[in-house]
Automatic annotation (TrEMBL):
<dbReference type="InterPro" id="IPR029063">
    <property type="entry name" value="SAM-dependent_MTases_sf"/>
</dbReference>
<dbReference type="Pfam" id="PF13649">
    <property type="entry name" value="Methyltransf_25"/>
</dbReference>
<dbReference type="InterPro" id="IPR041698">
    <property type="entry name" value="Methyltransf_25"/>
</dbReference>
<feature type="domain" description="Methyltransferase">
    <location>
        <begin position="70"/>
        <end position="101"/>
    </location>
</feature>
<protein>
    <recommendedName>
        <fullName>Methyltransferase domain-containing protein</fullName>
    </recommendedName>
</protein>
<feature type="region of interest" description="Disordered">
    <location>
        <begin position="1"/>
        <end position="21"/>
    </location>
</feature>
């Protein structure tokens, strides 16, 4: 479900066009669900696949694993969900998101028949390793990947491209989020000042980076 919004104010750096957002009032998710956001998510997925050397799933599972069920929480456009279904043709693959996923008839590629979708409020995975251990998973492993702000200093071309993407897309993303968070609670001057500080904080700089964690574990009783 989507709700229309009015155009936001523009600046010398960015102009926010009319966007649509999910209508689940219980969720704090702030980003839009419109076509430009779909494009951004697909581009981000391509860069992440590159820096992870095409290893979009880190569990050591052969494609022919029987009775395999895969859950993609916060699946966005479903691009990764679709890739998982193609890599594991015998698996039952579920993609969950707050907003409707682009339908199977979309021109950018039909979904395989083993994908199912259902709306759900996704939660942060920052404590996934703890939750998995508490749930009884064994051999829980965390692998981290860098989100560098700027690719000028990177030697590998895929990391150059990834760094340039992060430095360009993240300020645009937070520009929209700041407007959404402060909407109705702060004046225009506060919004502009917050955005200016954000732009300064996210300026490309060697050594400045975020860390993304990939967490995998083995169910108890499985060898």
């Amino acid at each position: 479900m989507a709700a229309s919004t009015n155009p936001s104010t523009s600046s010398s750096s960015y102009t926010t066009t009319p966007q649509t957002y999910h209508t689940d009032k219980t969720s704090a998710y702030l980003l839009p669900n419109s076509s430009p956001e779909h494009d951004r998510l697909n581009t981000q997925a391509a860069h992440l696949r590159a820096i992870m050397n095409d290893q979009i799933i880190h569990s050591p599972l052969p494609p022919s694993t029987p009775n395999l069920r895969i859950l993609d929480v916060g699946c966005g456009t479903g691009i990764v969900t679709r890739d998982l279904a193609l890599r594991f043709p015998n698996a039952e693959v579920w993609g969950l998101d707050l907003s409707d996923v682009p339908p199977p008839r979309a021109e950018d590629g039909p979904f395989p028949s083993n994908i199912k979708g259902r709306g759900l409020d996704p939660r942060s995975a920052s404590k996934a390793h703890t939750w998995m251990a508490e749930a009884g998973f064994r051999d829980v492993v965390v692998k981290q990947y860098r989100w560098p702000f700027g690719g000028e200093w990177e030697e590998d071309e895929k990391w150059k491209a990834w760094g340039d993407y992060v430095a360009t897309s993240m300020p645009e993303l937070f520009w929209v989020m700041i407007g959404r968070i402060l909407e109705g609670t702060a004046g225009k001057e506060v919004v502009e000042r917050t955005r200016e500080q954000m732009m300064a904080d996210l300026r490309p700089e060697k050594g400045k980076e975020w860390r993304m964690s990939v967490v995998v574990g083995r169910k108890a009783g499985e060898e």
